[in-house]
Design goal:
The complex is a heterodimer of chains A (about 425) and B (about 170). By secondary structure, chain A is of the alpha/beta class. Chain A has helices spanning about 5-15, 40-50, 70-90, 100-105, 135-145, 170-180, 195-200, 205-210, 230-235, 295-300, 300-310, 330-340, 340-350, 400-405; strands at about 25, 30-35, 60, 90-95, 115, 130-135, 150, 155-160, 190-195, 220-225, 255-260, 270, 280, 290-295, 320-325, 350, 375, 390-395. Chain A has 2 domains: about 5-260, Aconitase, domain 3 (2-Layer Sandwich); about 270-415, Aconitase, domain 3 (2-Layer Sandwich). Chain A has a 5-stranded parallel beta sheet. In chain A, helix 6 links the parallel strand 8 and strand 9. Chain A is globular, with a radius of gyration of 20 Å. Chain B is about 25% helix and about 20% strand. Chain B is built from 7 helices and 7 strands. In chain B, strands 4-3-2-1-5-6-7 form a 7-stranded mixed beta sheet. The longest helix of chain B is centred in the middle third of the chain and has 9 residues, at about 90-100. In chain B, about 50% of the residues are buried. By secondary structure, chain B is an alpha/beta fold. The chains are: A alpha/beta (about 425), B alpha/beta (about 170). At the A-B interface, strand 1, helix 2, helix 3, helix 5 and strand 7 of A face helix 5 and helix 7 of B.
Chain lengths: ~425, ~170
């Protein structure tokens, strides 16, 4: 019997031949902590009486959710994490270096790795052919302390995507469409595996968008076979030697298969307050937009910022719409500076903030007022997500967000392509 | 062990943002304080009203969203002895077991707000004392029973020095 990518990776890491539904102890290659979940993980390690981590070179700690810190309590949490990193010798990414999933992809995650992160969007790493999944603080604490965790091997849903994306339509629109189709728990306990010509021709930054949002359908992982796009991305980040080919066997057993043609796909939006509440933007009705947020681990990459700058060149924001841009990492920020994108953004009337999670998680830097609507390129629109239960978050692609900032209302971006 | 308490009903898609709102991010290292806001965006008065041993009873996909373990932790700190739902999001379910909070998947439509319940975790039976009916539920996976039985993952590892779930 052939194996899926998930079955292969988990078998390799357990020393056993595993198939879907098996429970097993699995060796962990990479762990990540961030400033919202990390302090609790550090305290749990102390509770366990574990002073040293098994593999400090495989652990990265990120100060990204509350960065720079808006409150003394969070500043103290940052001190806890800095001390932990110093004491254990693991990597620390300071305020301003970027959002965890972006940096993991740039610097750490490789095909065939097992990555566990105390952040639900850790599944981003599936784009690189890793088995990457989000867990709680205690699970990650134990993974750091023992170098292993336990898994039930997930069944895999094969998502076969064919056709060609039309201008103005992006991986984000595809993923919102898929989540709307599957529902927010349509893939619970399962892995999504993305394949087909439309996925094979998709460059890594767009794949990262798709894997990032797998958890919004409830999935444990959102995984791609490694291929020339994976190799090109690793090479771009100086890690070409980490490439290995990894794909599901032809006779692998899938839970089910979903076929999607992207030819007719339109720009999509998730309406408040659930991610699976999706509609085509041109059928969403009139929505006044008070704030536009472009950034996050979903859509804060240089490719996203280029799309936005192309749409905004020579234009100004709507006077009633404020605009916040948060590059996903320092490298993205530097590139945006070199390419002149930041000048375009500031000239347009946007605010550019510290690389990191930005306004996505409602801690700082763009909290909504009562009754306000935000078009956001992030991945969640739950009630209260952006810091105010009386605010409304609409999830969309960077192109849709950019077009909406010009018009001051939710806008189909295809007229700019 | 028999758990006894009153049912507090919630709807579908109770996210971890509703359970532990992002605007209280700064309280994550002060869990007793954070627990005063548990489920605040789903029921503003819940934290004040809930009694020791009571049950949170949700609909589908309970605990979706962020991996913040603080969500099940503050439900437990608030005095809740068990969460019941038609289905759970994966990370929340695992986190709840890890911190020693029992979670049960069952048909929660049969339970009304305010019902007095008695839950036998070993036998897999919920007795709705108010309605005088019994509901059955499937046991949680064995690996998780062992962790829950030890009182959570930290206690499990302290006791065995390693995972002991196979």
């Amino acid at each position: 019997m052939g194996k899926t990518i998930s079955e292969k990776i988990l078998s390799e890491h357990s020393g056993k031949e595993l198939k879907a539904d098996d429970f097993s102890i699995v060796k962990v290659d990479l762990c990540l902590l961030q400033d919202g979940t990390g302090p609790l993980a550090v305290r749990q390690l102390e509770q366990l009486g574990i002073k040293e981590v098994v593999n400090p070179q495989g652990i990265a700690v990120f100060l990204d959710h509350a960065a720079p810190s808006p409150r003394k309590e969070l500043s103290n949490d940052h001190i806890t994490l800095r001390n932990f990193a110093r004491r254990t010798g693991c990597y620390l990414f300071e305020v301003g270096e970027g959002v965890c999933h972006q940096i993991m992809s740039e610097m750490f995650t490789s095909p065939g790795d097992v990555l566990v992160g105390a952040d639900s969007h850790t599944c981003t790493g599936g784009a690189l052919g890793a088995f990457a999944t989000g867990m709680g603080s205690t699970d990650v604490a134990v993974a750091m302390g023992l170098g292993k965790t336990w898994f039930r091997v997930p069944r895999t849903i094969k998502v076969v995507v064919n056709g060609k994306f039309r201008p103005g339509v992006f991986a984000k629109d595809f993923m919102l469409f898929l989540i709307g189709t599957l529902g927010a728990e349509g893939a619970t306990y399962k892995a999504l595996e993305f394949t087909g010509e439309a996925m094979e021709s998709l460059p890594m930054p767009e794949r990262l968008v798709i894997s990032n949002m797998a958890v919004e359908a409830g999935a444990k992982a959102g995984i791609f076979a490694s291929d020339k796009m994976t190799k090109a991305y690793l090479k771009q980040h100086g890690r070409e030697e980490k490439y290995r080919e990894l794909r599901s066997d032809k006779d692998a057993k899938y839970d089910k298969e979903i076929d999607i043609e992207v030819d007719k796909l339109a720009p999509m939006v998730s309406m408040p307050h659930t991610v699976d509440n999706t509609k085509p933007v041109d059928k969403a009705g009139k929505v006044k937009v008070h704030q536009v947020f472009i950034g996050s681990c979903t859509n804060g990459r240089i490719e996203d910022l280029r799309v936005v700058a192309d749409i905004w060149k020579g234009k100004k924001r709507d006077t009633d719409t404020r605009v916040i841009i948060t590059p996903a990492s320092k490298d993205v920020y530097m590139l945006a500076v070199k390419e002149g994108l930041i000048e375009t953004f500031v000239d347009f009337g946007a605010t550019v903030t510290t690389p990191g999670c930005g306004a996505c998680v409602g801690v700082h830097g763009g909290i909504l007022g009562d009754g306000e609507n935000c078009v956001s390129t992030s991945n969640r629109n739950f009630l209260g997500r952006m810091g105010n239960p009386k605010g409304f978050v609409y999830l969309a692609s960077p192109a849709t967000a950019a077009a909406s900032a010009i018009k001051g209302e939710l806008t189909d971006p295809r007229e700019y392509f | 062990m028999i758990l006894r308490g009153k049912a507090w009903k919630f709807g579908n898609d109770i996210s971890t943002d509703l359970i532990a709102p992002g605007r209280y991010f700064h309280l994550r290292s002060d869990l007793n304080e954070l627990a005063k806001h548990v489920l605040e965006d789903a029921d503003a008065e819940f934290a004040k009203k809930v009694g020791k041993g009571d049950f949170v009873v949700g609909g589908r996909n309970f605990g979706l969203g962020s991996s913040r373990e603080h969500a099940p932790t503050i439900i437990k700190i608030a005095g809740v002895s068990c969460v019941l739902a038609k289905s759970f999001a994966r990370i929340f379910f695992r986190n709840a077991i890890n911190i020693g909070l029992p979670v049960i998947e069952c048909d929660t439509d049969k339970i009304a707000a305010g019902d007095e319940l008695e839950i036998d975790l070993e036998k897999g039976v919920i007795k709705d004392v108010t309605k005088k009916v019994d509901l059955k539920f499937a046991p949680i996976p064995k690996a998780m029973t062992q962790i829950l039985g030890d009182g959570g993952l930290v206690e499990h590892i302290k006791k065995h020095g390693d995972f002991k779930i196979e």
